[in-house]
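Practice problem: predict the structure.
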Amino acid sequence: MTFEQFFRILMARRWLAIGLFLSILCAAILLGLLLPKSYTAETSIVVDLKPDPITGMVQSATLQPSAHIATQVNMIRSDAVARRVVGMLKLGDNPEMRAKWIKETDQRGSFEDWLGKTLLKGLSVSVVRESSIIRLQYESVSPQFAAVLANAFARAYTDTVVELRTSPARGYSDYFEERARLAREKLERAQAKLTEAQRARGIVTTDERMDLEMARLNELGSQVVSLKALLAESSNRSAAGTSRADITAEAITNPVIGGLRTEIARQTAQLNQLSQSLGDEHPTLKQTRASIAELERKLNAEVGRVSGGLRTADTIVRARLEAAQKAYDEQRARILEMKGKRDGVALLEREVESAQRVLEAIQLRLSQTNLESNANQASAYVLSPAVEPPKHSWPNMFIFLAVGLFGGAIAALFTTLAAELLDRRIRTATDLIHALEIPVIGVLPSPMPKRLKLFNKRTTYNRMLPAAPN
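Answer:
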């Protein structure tokens, strides 16, 4: 179908299309005007995802915020919150609602549950994108009732959060109180046994003698270790002094030995110089040789004294090590003897300490549960309470008008085309060619309004087709 054919069909059946379009548009407008009006009140709740200020523990919400927010949304839509709203507003005392419940359910089930489910039908809950804010909207035919119900659901939700937090804490508080009582009795029994054992053996738990003796033992142990290291060093030096005392560190750093070696070297050089110009029997050479021999004798004597000093130092270190080791062994035996006396009460002391730790842990947990059971702050807060909406939210005339315009246009278009298919007419030369399957020699202009002459000139006035062959 060409645009010319489509246009001629619309022009031929324009009154049908216009009538159908206007009918649908008027019906949509009348429907929007006649439908009962409903009002939507909105309130916002912000969910706190920070750590619990009472317990100091990180909630699961900080690890999975999306799952926590989804849980809160389902909690708002729950029957428990709806029943709390019924109780808060005392809707159960309404005779009209009770009569409606009797009519619909024949008194089957709970009236509060039925009324809560009825209230939930007007509630819509959504989450603001990329935030921890939950939006509550309640729709009702009364703007006052919509605002009251929106605020009631928000308050019932926060009260439910507080109850879910405090109710388990109260149960835990009773449990921990009983456990603390038993732990306290156990500690008292263990303390009595320890006191009796200490009195029998004459041991005082506050005696600091053991600490002093242990400090003394540690000090002696440090001395033994140091002396062993010093003995190893002195033994090596003594062995080196016995074999080659002249190359030891003490001999090298000794100023007397250094001076003798320097003097020997000087006189040896002088002797070599004199021997080149004087004979072997020259008195000067003999005197120089005698001086060098005396210096070497003194050097050997000094090296011997250094070697003897190394052996003496090694002997002294060994004696100190033996004395320190003996003192360490005696101190260790003394501590073992003291520990032997205290072993009888060590087990009782550990039992007392264990019972004390258990009691302290239970008391700490008891204090936390007491704080949680008395906490009246929820982890969700009303950000903006609902107010009475000034305008109705449904029906929306813009939506009905858009639906009427779009639906009317589509219905008019398809109805016109359907009517044309049911009652086909020849409207153009192309329709004639398709219908008779013969070519058209020429087309005469038809009398038509001036507003269509321009279109006719452009499309069909001079349209000529070849004549059929003979």
